[in-house]
Amino acid sequence: xxxxxxLANIWRGFLSLWVSDIENRNPEAVYEAAIxxxxxxxxxxxxxxxxxxxMRNKLQAELETKExxxxxxxxxxxxxxxxxxxxxxxxxxxxxDELTSQIEQLSAELKKVLEQAEEAKSGLISFQAEIEKLKxxxxxxxxxxxxxxxxxxxxxxxxxxxxxxxxxxxxNVREGIKKLQAEADIGSEIQGGSLDAKLRxxxxxxxxxxxxxxxxxxxxxxxxxxxxxxxxxAAAGMKKTI
Length: 242
What we know:
Strand content: under 5%
Helix content: over 70%
CATH class of the largest domain: Mainly Alpha
Radius of gyration: 61 Å
Number of domains: 2
C-alpha cells in the first residue's frame, strides 16, 4: 500500500469518527434524515407500483376487448357457414384464431402482472409499516435519551454536592442548642440558690408555721370549751342528786 493510500485511509477514518460524533450528538436529526429518506423511497416505490397497476388495468381492458370480439366472431361464424358465405367464414376463422392467440398471450402477461402487482402491493405496505416503526423507534429512543440525560444530570448534581458543609452546619446547630440548654440549667441553679429564692422559702415556711400555730390554738380552745361544758353538766347533775 502506497503512502497516499495510507493517508487516504487515515483521512477516511478521521472523517468517519467526526461523522459518528455528530450523529451521536444529534440523534433526532439522524432519525429525521432516515425517516425522510425512507419516505422518498416510499414515493418512488409507489410510483413504480402505480405503473404496474396501470399495466394491469390496461391488460385487463385489452383482454376484455379481445374476449368480447371473440364472442362476436364465434356468434357470426355459424351464420356465415349456414349462409354459404365461405369467404366470410374463412376471414372469421382467421380472426378467431388470431383473437384466441392474442387472448392466450394477454392472459399470460396479465397473470405475471397480477403477481407483480400483488408483490409490489405487499412491499409497499411493508415499507409503510417500516416507516411507522422507525417513527415510533425515534420517539422511544429520544425519550430514553432524555431520561438518561436527566438521570446523569441528577447524578452529577449529587456528586457535586459536598456534605461537609451540611455536617458542619448541623454540628453548629447541635452545639448551639446544647449551649442554650446549659444556660437554662445554670439559670435554674442560680435562681434556686439566690437570696430572693431563700427569702421566698423562709416566707413560705413562716406562713406555714403561722397557720399551724393558729390551727393548734383553735384546737386547744375547742377542747377547753368541751371540757367546760362537760364540767357544767357534771355540776348540774350533782345538784339534782342533793
